[in-house]
């Protein structure tokens, strides 16, 4: 036999002069197979490098043990933490994950869903792309539900599709962050906003606006600057903000990356943090605790979100019904030196 040819159950059966079904049972610890025979076959299979044909097994068992995870990006700590949470729980259950990145595009999301279905996944975890929201096209998701395959929305809900979801209350997190800046004396609070139209950005912006209104603080459009979540997109805007005749006394960043860039610019321009300018971010990225000064932020519990999402999937699998569950996690304000006197 060619050494590059994979060893099959039939090859092992010829070696032990038995049927392939006997070998299969021995490899699966079937109690009807003599213990010595089981051990001998398993040891030989390991020695010759036998590997199970997972595709054939999935066809036989009608289970693939594969799951799809579709996210808009992997550029931020929150997404990677979610996937870590999913993997922590699902790996222990014997599942493997296929991770797909849409870059906020509907066409890619639709293509990934169709490919995952073709590969017989047992469930799909989806963080809906912004283009899908904007287009309102959910036919690809209906295909998942029509096959009675569990569909779990993670991080972003989708009101138009009847499926279970787990999200974080971004509005509340932004409201709490803004209120903290106000209660410590902030009157001119700048917001480094994410891209216009992106759902999470708009929720945080709304939380910021509503908090200003609650405390009767004038909403100044000049203090709201768009970023693209990246550090470099915040540098010039923050320079412009701090050069105003009446510069901001506080800055709320849409994420920790732009907030950390803001801190660097503010300090370079000679302002002290937090005495002259308080800064708060969003996400509780690991680096935020080790900046100088350490960055106050909002913890979105990405890993916990992933872990809890697995519970929704397993519940859907065991119920074998289309009953929906909804979980909304309350984020936590993490206060550090960038806002504390």
**β-strand amount:** 5-15%
Strand order of the largest sheet: 2-1-3-4-5-11
* Low-confidence region ranges: 57-61
Radius of gyration: 26 Å
Straight-line distance between termini: 75 Å
> What level of helicity do the residues show?
40-55%
Overall form = elongated
Give the structural class.
alpha/beta
Tally of strands: 12
Mind describing the biggest β-sheet?
6 strands, parallel
Order of helices and strands: HHHHEHEHEHHEEHEHEHEHEEHEE
Mean of pLDDT? 91
Count of helical segments? 13
Provide an overview of this structure.
With 341 residues, this protein is of the alpha/beta class. It is 45% helix and 15% strand. The chain contains 13 helices and twelve strands. Helix 5 links the parallel strand 1 (66-71) and strand 2. Residues 57-61 have low confidence and may be disordered.
Structure at a glance:
45% of the residues lie in helices and 15% in strands. The chain contains 13 helices and twelve strands. The protein has helices at 9-16, 20-27, 35-48, 54-61, 77-92, 106-118, 130-135, 139-146, 170-183, 199-214, 232-242, 256-268, 302-319; strands at 66-71, 96-101, 123-126, 151-155, 164-168, 189-193, 224-226, 250-253, 278-280, 297-299, 326-329, 332-334.
């Amino acid at each position: 036999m060619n050494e590059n040819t994979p060893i099959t159950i039939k090859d092992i059966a010829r070696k032990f002069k038995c049927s392939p079904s006997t070998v299969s049972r021995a490899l699966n610890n079937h109690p009807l197979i003599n213990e010595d025979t089981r051990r001998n076959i398993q040891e030989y299979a390991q020695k010759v490098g036998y590997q199970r044909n997972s595709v054939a097994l999935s066809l036989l068992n009608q289970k693939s043990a594969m799951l799809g995870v579709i996210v808009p990006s992997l550029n931020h700590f929150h997404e990677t933490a979610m996937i870590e949470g999913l993997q922590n729980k699902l790996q222990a259950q014997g599942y493997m994950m296929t991770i797909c990145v849409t870059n906020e595009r509907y066409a890619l999301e639709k293509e990934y869903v169709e490919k995952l279905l073709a590969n017989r996944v047992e469930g799909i975890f989806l963080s809906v792309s912004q283009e899908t929201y904007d287009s309102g096209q959910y036919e690809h998701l209906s295909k998942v539900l029509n096959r009675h395959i569990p569909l779990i929305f993670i991080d972003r809900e989708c009101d138009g599709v009847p499926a279970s979801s787990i999200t974080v209350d971004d509005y509340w997190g932004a409201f709490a962050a803004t209120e903290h800046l106000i209660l410590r004396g902030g009157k001119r609070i700048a917001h480094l906003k994410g891209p216009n139209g992106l759902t999470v950005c708009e929720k945080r912006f709304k939380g910021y606006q509503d908090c200003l209104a609650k405390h009767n603080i004038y909403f100044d459009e000049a203090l709201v600057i768009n970023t693209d979540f990246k550090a470099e997109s915040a540098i010039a805007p923050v320079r412009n903000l701090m050069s105003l005749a009446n510069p901001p006394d506080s800055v709320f960043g849409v994420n920790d990356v732009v907030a950390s860039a803001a801190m660097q610019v503010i300090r370079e321009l000679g302002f002290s943090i937090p005495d002259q300018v308080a800064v708060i971010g969003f996400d509780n990225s690991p680096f935020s605790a080790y900046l100088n000064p350490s960055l106050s932020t909002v913890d979105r519990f990405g890993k916990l979100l992933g872990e809890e999402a697995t519970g929704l999937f397993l519940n859907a699998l065991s119920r074998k019904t289309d009953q929906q569950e909804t979980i909304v996690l309350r984020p936590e304000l993490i206060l550090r030196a960038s806002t504390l006197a």
